[in-house]
Amino acid sequence: MERVSSDPSLTFAILGPLEVRRDGEVVEIAGQRLRTLLGLLVLDAGRTVPVERLIAGIWDEQVPSGVGNALQALISRLRSALGKNHARRLVVAEPAGYRLAAGPDQVDVRRFALLARAGQAALAAGDARTAAATLREALALWRGPVPAELAGAGLAADVARLESGRLSVAEDRIEAELLLGRPAGLIDELSGLLTAHPLRERLHAQRMRALYGAGRRVEALAAYETARRTFRDELGADPSPSLTELHLTMLRDDPPPPEDVTPTTGPHAGQGLEGALSAGGRRGNLRARLTSFVGREDDLDHTADLLSAHRLVTLIGPGGAGKTRLATEVAEAVAATMPDGVWLAELASVSDETGLVQSLLSALDLRDGRPLPLASLPRDPFERLVRALRGKRLLIVLDNCEHIVEQAARVADQVLADCPDVRILATSREPLGITGEVTWTLPPLGLPPAGADPADAAGYPAVRLFADRAAAVRPGYRVRQDAGPVVAICRALDGLPLAIELAAARLRSLTAEEIAARLGAREGRFRLLSSGSRTAQARHQTLRAVVEWSWNLLDEEERTLGRRLSVFAGGATLDSIEHLHAATDERLRSRRADATVERLQDGPSDATDERFQGGPADGAAHDVLGSLARLVDKSFVIFDAGRYRMLETIRAYAAERLDESGELDVVRRAHAVHFTELAEAAEPGLRTGEQIDRLAELSAEHENLSTALRWAIESGAGEPALRLVGALGWYWWLRGHRLEGALRSREALAVPGGGPAPLRAMNLAIHVLNGVGLLLSWEEAMVMLTEMRELRSPEVAPHPLVALAGPMFVLSGGGAPQSEALVAEMSGHPDPWVVATGMLLRGLTHYSAGRIEQGERETLTALDGYRTIGDRWGAATALATLSDVHLLRGESELGIEVMREALELVDALGALEDTAYMRARLALGLNLLGRRAEAERLLRDIAQVAADSGDQLGEAGILAVWGEFARQDGDLGSAREHYARALSMMDASVAVPVQMISAVNSSLGLLAVQEGDLDGARRLLTLALKQATEVGDAQLTGIAVIACAGLALAHGRAEEAAALLGGAEVIKGIAAVVDFDHVRLTADAKAALGDREFLRHLERGRGMDQDDVVALALRT
Predict the structure, then answer these.
(1) What is the CB neighbour count within 10 angstroms for residue 833?
(2) How far apart are CA 644 and CA 650, in angstroms?
(3) For a disulfide at 314, which of 131, 292, 426, 659, Cβ 3.0-4.6 Å?
(4) Are 1057 and 1048 in contact (CB under 8 A)?
């Protein structure tokens, strides 16, 4: 009995790169000599390898002195690498050498030998189906060539034996496939094998039989001549008698005999359709699947339902979508309802109708020349097919019809007409287009959103498929360890099953993160996904081959349109496609005309400028809609919700063809011009009642607009870049894409040449509006605003954003007094939106100065203006401001109601940053009403929005609110942590409004009071007061004064505290302040003074002016 390892968790692989795994995880074996030692032991696993053989393999002719000790040292290192628990029982010392005590299931070379013997035995016994499946399993163990550790270890004979055994098993597997009646799918594989082994006579014979069986008799005869020539030229010999006899059989048009075995596909195999019918039992020629079926369970059920109700169902989809696999799964699922079987005809290698019929006859084993009962059938192939099928209840799967779609349609139509109980399930990249056909377009596998939670991502079909196929090359693989890169891979590959499988196979040598990065590189996907299953058809072995197959089926007009479509990012409408196509054709005609004139001026020449190649002939207008419809029919383009788009893999391939055509620059320019004009037409509507429609239009084209802008900037087209930024500035603001707006406007402004002054002024305004706090400091923004004002024309009213930028910037920077003059300029603008916005900003200046009633009146006027115009953003901003007033007054319920109304408006706009700000304010209002749980839920939601959009200031503000909640609850440690994180995020920002820092410093001062650090509190509150008063913000000044009242109470000066509370009310302009600290400190001061004394000092404070109140606070 063989003694095997006591550590079955270890597996050893040598049929490819040398690899050891423990529970699916790779065990590192470092060092060339150590790997050679292991390779030698694995090669003869279970048997003793003599010491002499080990020494010769490891050191060759450079044997060191004391080699015995050196070998023992290597054995010790190997045992340590494999794990100390059972190392001595795994690498066993024998009297004559060493033995790797690993069982057959632990070593791939031993498992290969066992499977090979089993498959060959099944073949000899006539069980071709079992043989094919077993031999495929054996070949799947090979992951590459024999490792270098053996090739260079004096083991040439052993390496040759392994490679020869692999080739023999491949030939036996091919023989089994031939006996199963699957010749067409073997032709490409056999051609590849003969390229590598041109003197292998058995391969020549098998290729001849495959060609003949696929109905390609002429090519089969030519294959014999190729073999004869090869043997004569290389060996000086003739083919063997058996190959010559095979040739003669084909010349007589007799069916070639098998290789001394009886074909079978199961209990009644080898009998074809007629034999199966007479024998009973499960019938058909479906081959066993070697991988699990993942991700298309719903599609399987739906297709099976369609097939039960309709006689012709066609599965439509691009190459690699999984049509063939789904079709075979459906066929298997419905087999029980098909008494006469389910039969697969593979049509990839068929080129005409005759070949198609022969392929069907071959699949059904009804080829001419078969023994009775088929000998009496008609000689005409199609009539023979129909006669055999008539009266039978069966399913035929026509796989890969797209390249012979017309022929497939005719054959399917006549078979269905003449054989009423036959059903057909076809796969194609376009419909057959005949009466009675029902199509089901395979969608991509379900994809998780970017950044999905690992636990959620693992449940999506695309990720499940990746994980399943990854586990085949890295046993024990789990997605959760690198869910982010796996999601990125699946999304980059559009959920295309074949592409995902090819990517998963790369985990043999790359991490998921490396795969994801390479997919994002130019041409990366085609280089990376270039090694599929050796037994797959050639067009399914690489991602490029899959797409090329589809490309080669397009006519010239379809290819022209297809390559131009690659310039669209995120798809396009028919109108955009027609505009681009027409503009490109016009530009190309103009170029050709200019080139003709130049040539006539220079004299006759036969030369042709390649840059002017491509496009339709002069005067020949493309039927864009017709070509586009055909591209959709052929699964090259997807039509969805009014837009046409390409899968990214197809788009990448088409982009290569566009680059080769010489049209790239013309097409990109036409694309940029079109989308600039589209954005400019939409821009004014962003401030009117058309706002939602124009936002939707620009959002749908966001990727195209970004692509157009990128081209303008990279090509140095200054004016087009400024135009497009100018058209998108307010869109970026409304959508919350402010970092994008800041970056793109900076890049456009940096392009040499630029454009006219008004255009540059608008870009400066956009850069300031979007960039302050993200890219711009306050000082940089002031310089830009100065330049902007200098560029303005006194005769022409400025663009609304130019009118807005100065006042909004100054006000947000705390310059309320300075902003009043700028805001006043807006009142005379001819655009009612600018006037309403000026009213809104004037209201904010009143609030900042503590003039609450005046501010409220101006804001209500602005609200009316926005409602008249139909601008939701302006109305929402005005409502949010009014909500703050209600909350300050203690009208919390009303404040919440008004804020919810504002949120309804901005939610419809998708204004991320405004939504986050308003929800934060709503959370504070809910907290005032004691609805803390609701408030915290809101904060958690908006924290994620701020993080996703890169809004550091937004995140800082949310952290400060969490700090307030913690301080109110008495959790001082947590409060300090939140405030510290908030300040840290502010420090990381380029420009932070002083108001934010002042508010946090006031909170930190109160926290210090609560912690008993009164000196620290004084320093913080002095700073907060100075910051608030310097920017002239009465609301923040009042907050700092209230905090100073807390410090006064801590020092035992309750009278001062009461006066400061009264003074804060006056500064803020609110008679009854109800925030948490004001209420708490009022209660404490009353308790210390009594009601009458407290009221006396409160009134004293109310009678002081702001300067006196601030001075009192600073003395606290």
Answers:
(1) 23
(2) 13
(3) 426
(4) yes
Question: Domain boundary residue among 500, 526, 549?
Answer: 549
Alpha-carbon distance of 564 to 661, in angstroms, equals 10
The answer for residues whose C-beta is within 8 angstroms of residue 886's C-beta and 6 or more apart is 892, 894, 895, 898
DSSP state string for 528-557:
HS----TTS-GGGSSHHHHHHHHHTTS-HH
- Provide DSSP, 188-216: HHHHHHHHH-TT-HHHHHHHHHHHHHTT-
The tokens describing 714, both together, are 């990279």
Distance between CA atoms of residues 766 and 987, nearest Å: 24
- The one-letter amino acid code at 695 reads L
Same domain, residue pair 125 and 6: yes
Cβ contacts of 1112 within 8 Å, gap of 6 or more: 1056, 1059, 1060, 1063, 1101, 1104
Pairing of strands 437-441, 422-428: unpaired
Q: Please indicate, yes or no, whether residues 160 and 205 belong to a single structural domain of this protein.
A: no
For residues 655 and 532, membership in a common domain is answered with no
Tokens (6 digits) for 526: 């085609």
Q: Are residues 25 and 137 in the same domain?
A: yes
Pair 167, 197: CB distance under 8 Å: yes
Residue 955 lies in a domain: no
Task: Read off the pLDDT of each residue in 121-140 and give the average, rounded to a whole number.
Answer: 87
Query: Shortest CA distance to 215 belongs to which of 355, 89, 101?
Result: 355
Residue with tokens 């006549």: 414
pLDDT tens digit sequence for 548-574 = 877 887 888 999 999 999 999 989 999
| pLDDT tens profile 982-1023 | 988 888 766 677 888 999 999 999 999 999 999 999 999 999
Q: Containing H/E element for 10? A: strand 10-13
Q: Tell me the pLDDT band of 613, cut-offs 50, 70 and 90.
A: very low
Q: Which of 312-321, 639-648, 1043-1052 has the highest mean pLDDT?
A: 1043-1052
CATH of the domain at 1090: 1.25.40
In this prediction, residue 565 carries a pLDDT of 93
Residues above pLDDT 90, as percent of the chain: 34
Q: Could you tell me which residue, 293 or 5, shows the higher pLDDT?
A: 293
Is there a contact between 283 and 268 (Cβ–Cβ < 8 Å)?
yes
Residue with tokens 């993200």: 774
Between 66 and 482, the higher pLDDT residue: 482
Helix (H) or strand (E) holding 1039: helix 1034-1050
**515 and 601 inside one domain:** no
**pLDDT computed for residue 465 by the predictor:** 86
Q: Residue 731 corresponds to which amino acid?
A: Y
Q: Are residues 228 and 368 in the same domain?
A: no
Average pLDDT, the chain: 83
* In contact, 1081 and 1059? CB cutoff 8 Å: no
- Beta-strand ranges (E) seen in 788-834 are none
Residue 485 maps to a domain: yes
Instruction: For residues 137 and 118, state if they share a domain.
Output: yes
Query: pLDDT value at position 280?
Result: 38
In whole angstroms, give the CA distance from residue 722 to residue 713: 9
Residues 6+ apart with CB under 8 A from 1021: 1001, 1002, 1005, 1040, 1043, 1044, 1047, 1113, 1116
User: Which of these, 29, 21, 23, lies nearest to 143 by C-alpha position?
Assistant: 21
Instruction: Indicate whether 781 pLDDT > 50.
Output: yes
287 CB contacts (<8 Å, ≥6 apart)? 129, 132, 133, 177, 180, 182, 328, 344
| Number of folded domains that form the chain | 6
Contacts of 864 (CB under 8 A, 6+ apart): none
Identify whether the C-beta of residue 860 lies closer than 8 Å to the C-beta of residue 839: no
d(CA 614, CA 929): 70
End-of-domain residue from the set 162, 179, 196 = 179
Residue 717 resides in a domain = no
